[in-house]
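Task 17 of the worksheet. Students: predict the tertiary structure of the chain below and write it out as structure tokens. Keep your answer in the requested format; marks are given for formatting as well as content.
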Amino acid sequence: MDTLNMEKYISLDAAAEKPVTLREWIKNPKNEVPAHKIGRFWKFKCSEIDAWVNSGKSANAE
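Model answer:
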């Protein structure tokens, strides 16, 4: 297995300064937040979050 492609997931609390806001953005499908629900927890890949922010889509999130 290629360990370079084994990116770890981070928690919602680690992904945002304001987890409540990020949780609300996730609930709105038009925001397209790159989130993965694993069990009952939301998890994020840093590369996906970085790409989302760099794309400008996070600035349009409501």
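Marker's comment: Residues 12-60 form one domain. The chain is about 35% helix and 20% strand.
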